[in-house]
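Hi F.,

I've been meaning to write this up properly since the lab meeting, where we talked about keeping a consistent format for the predictions we share between groups. The idea is simple: the sequence comes first, exactly as it goes in, then the structure tokens exactly as they come out, then a line or two of notes. No screenshots and no reformatting. I'm using this chain as the first example so we have something concrete to point to.
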Amino acid sequence: MSVAASRRLLSPVRLGPYELRNRVVMAPMTRNRAGAGRAPTSAAVQYYEQRASAGLIVTEATHAVPAGVGYPNTPGIHTPEQIAAWRRVTEAVHARGARIFLQIWHTGRISHPSLQPDGALPVAPSPIAPPGQLYTGQGMAPFVTPRALELDELPGIVEGFAEGARHALAAGFDGVEIHGANGYLLDQFLRDGSNHRTDAYGGPVERRARLLLEVTEAVAGVLGAGRVGVRVSPRNPYNSMHDSNPAATFGYVARALNAIGPAYLHVTETRGGEERLVSPALRDAFDGTFIANGGYTQALAESALATEAADLVAFGVPFISNPDLPERFAVGAPLAPADRATFYGGDERGYVDYPRGVERQDGTLEPAA
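Output, unedited:
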């Protein structure tokens, strides 16, 4: 694609209080490379700094409280050491002129007692174990039946996200993205396949969406709504998730969020198959900035922006192997393939060793020395 055809993708855009230099978002991607005490390492500083030609970086999912953890070597934001380590990341990204939001999550039932404080059961809206196994750090283990959260525990869940936002502010982040997608705790409450409660947080969509909305309101109370984003995944079956009517469920969420006014709604939805996309209806329902995600190429992103199907587009895997992705888009250079064997865990290989390039006279990129 020519430089002229990429003008919209690479054009500046307003997001909350910020002017982003382009509409390219680095999507949140779990890499399982946190160090001692689940703090980001010096390699993480390099990893995010390398990718700071994005208009906005959204970090890998980060647990705001110890009980929110669900995988080995994922980072947290609840200790002084973690906050200090994340501050080094934000300083490096800001030095290159990008904005960076911290994605905060609670994994809910997608966890295991071996990962939980004091070996406790994971929590969920309902005591429904997902099928299959997960990696615990000591090998694969079957999912356990989670403990259903009591009604009087839910304010503590909300406060955990708010505390994560306060710590994100201390670490120098420009904002926070609330992870309401991919089968983790807030998504578990949203979808009726995993939420069988009969109290004020279960049943009709107005009650199933309550926890996500309360979390969003609490985080906005810490940061201001213009520095908060929300991510959802209406049709994603990952982590054994399903909903009987995703259009109605997530349409309600999009409309209800307008009363809080977060800066953006980030919707991940893969095109293809026979199911009808939910994203266009969410785009119409939500008043704020809309970030599209889900297998986008440069051409598809430009098309989405040109038709106003999105305001920004998030890229995941292409950013892993192309740290200078917007610069490659700018000159129409080919993209380097990603090594999927190094996506999760490991050392610097497949993490910070993908080369950035310099432009040749013919517009292609020559690997940097």
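Notes:
The chain has eleven helices and 17 strands.
The chain has one domain: 4-367.

If this format works for you, I'll send the rest the same way.

G.
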